[in-house]
Amino acid sequence: MDKFLSVPVTGQTNFFVSVSDVIAITRTDDLTTVITYNSGNTATFTHATVGAADYEMRDSLQNAMDKALETSWTNVVADYTPPQAISAIAIA
Hints:
The protein is α+β, with helices and mostly antiparallel strands. The chain contains one helix and seven strands, in the order βββββαββ. The protein has one helix spanning 56-70, and strands spanning 4-7, 15-18, 22-29, 32-37, 42-47, 77-79, 86-91. The chain has a four-stranded antiparallel β-sheet with strand order 3-4-5-7, with helices on one face. Strands 2-1-6 form a three-stranded mixed β-sheet, covered by helices on one side. The two termini are 22 Å apart.
């Protein structure tokens, strides 16, 4: 059963982001965090600036995914409250 995070995006409705088959969550710069899936697809989060050595956004996503996967299989969508405002999510 697939599971998803319901991610709030400023000025838009919440996006559902899959927590299945994730192989990496990386911080590419102060404004961008990327989820890479086993399929090769990515979900790129554009968010408020974080410090040069700050991995709070990446760690927050990883912790939220862990918690979602620990719930019953009937709990398909988990609400996610990011530590920084998210202005966009691009799926590729």
